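Weekly puzzle thread! Below is a chain. First person to post its structure in token form gets bragging rights.
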Amino acid sequence: MADEIAYEYKTVRTVRGADGLVISKMRKDGWELAGQAQSGLRTTLDFRRPKKPLPRFLIGAAVGGLVLLATVIGVAAALENGSEKEGRSSKPPAGTASAVPSATSTPTAAASASPEVITDQNNPELAALLKTPDNCDRANVDFAAKYRGRTIAFDGSIVRMSPHGDYKTRYDFLLGPGDQGPRTGVGPAFRYEDKSALDLNLSGRSSPSAVRVGDLFRFVAEVGEYNADQCLFFLDPVSTASR
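Winning reply:
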């Protein structure tokens, strides 16, 4: 039917507790949640969104291309019947094939333009945030609003970790910039909520088998929301390298 909506679909698998962040991020890109299923600590999310209609100028170009192709085929047949050289009749297909690389070069260029990881070396706002003396400072709100969904990296330590609810292997981690652990007195109160040690994606030459308060790491994480009432800056771990 002409008015029927055509959809494209995507399935995303994530760990429990991070599904809300994934759903929010996908909705920003126009996806809607079509289904959700949990299996142990994993959540499978099914999304869909309407396919974009083909622009009219592209439809016209496609029709024009078909007409041109038919013309080329007709000319080639005429030349062949007229006993022309085989080399001359082969030129139109060669010209048609040469257009393929130029059409496929655009996705490659777009893929190479992915946003870089934000650090205190390439972003003055993050550098200032990590040195803010008050974790309730307005700078937290502004940074979270501007860079939500982006990836940051910083040297820090575990300030505190406590069991999440009744779980024995899942924790709420409080992180701070620098090397002071529980004595951290500057910067945001970064929080990983409802995470296990596996969720931290530990790496590095001396990657520990367990984590504890005071451990030093290079944290790479996705920026989440800032809770002004609790003065907590939520992050989602990407990788955690020991220092």
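Puzzle host: Confirmed. Bonus trivia for everyone else. The two ends are 60 Å apart (CA to CA).
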